[in-house]
Amino acid sequence: MKKEEIRRRVKARKTLLTDQERFDAADRVFAALERTAAFMLADRILMYHSLPDELSTRSFLSKWSSRKHFYLPRVNGVNLEILPYEEQRLQLGSFHIEEPTGNDTASIDDMEMIIVPAVAYDSRGSRVGRGKGYYDRLLASSKALKVGVAYDFQFVDGDDIETDEHDVPVDIVITESRHIIVRRRK
Predict the structure, then answer these.
(1) Per-residue pLDDT tens for 121-132?
(2) pLDDT, tens digit, 9 for 90 and up, residues 160-175
(3) Pair 183, 169: CB distance under 8 Å
(4) Within 13 Å, how many C-alpha atoms sit on residue 23's CB side?
(5) Could you tell me which of 62, 3, 72, 59 has the C-alpha nearest to residue 27?
(6) How many C-beta neighbours within 10 Å does residue 74 have?
(7) For residue 139, what are the contacts with CB-CB under 8 A and spacing of at least 6?
(8) Which residue positions in the chain have pLDDT lower than 50?
(9) pTM for this predicted structure
(10) CA-CA distance, 165 to 16, in Å (whole number)?
(11) Number of helical H runs and strand E runs in the chain
């Protein structure tokens, strides 16, 4: 399936969600993530700070920030920088996303797990992003476990997402009712 068609369908479906459905979905997805051995063992985790139409990460970050070392991306030109998450050090940045401030950037090599946002995922771990390639450039060199989180309707059954050579798949996809291991780690 073409990426633009997937983006259109998912965007339309997201507009139908109530606030309670959004909250419940985020609660179920992140509760499932918390129960994974990979999350329990990881200490340095790259998260994303959610946009209004994405699964909200705010409660999850707040709940775990005193026990895990979370990092958030910040747009720098065509790339993403990684900085430590501290709630009091956020400001509105590119694309109206709250981003960390400061100069204490971290290396992608230091991350043990990366929670990857996307518009959609399929059974191969292929993902449709927002179309700018920020995460593909960031993930290309990472050996960290890559976990996609999404609403159920963001999972495209089968392996229907068309991919390009530069697209980087995730290793695990977690939705409200699914936990799919797509690639065995070496």
Answers:
(1) 998 898 988 767
(2) 788 878 888 999 999 9
(3) yes
(4) 4
(5) 59
(6) 22
(7) 114, 116, 146, 168
(8) 186
(9) 0.91
(10) 33
(11) 5, 12
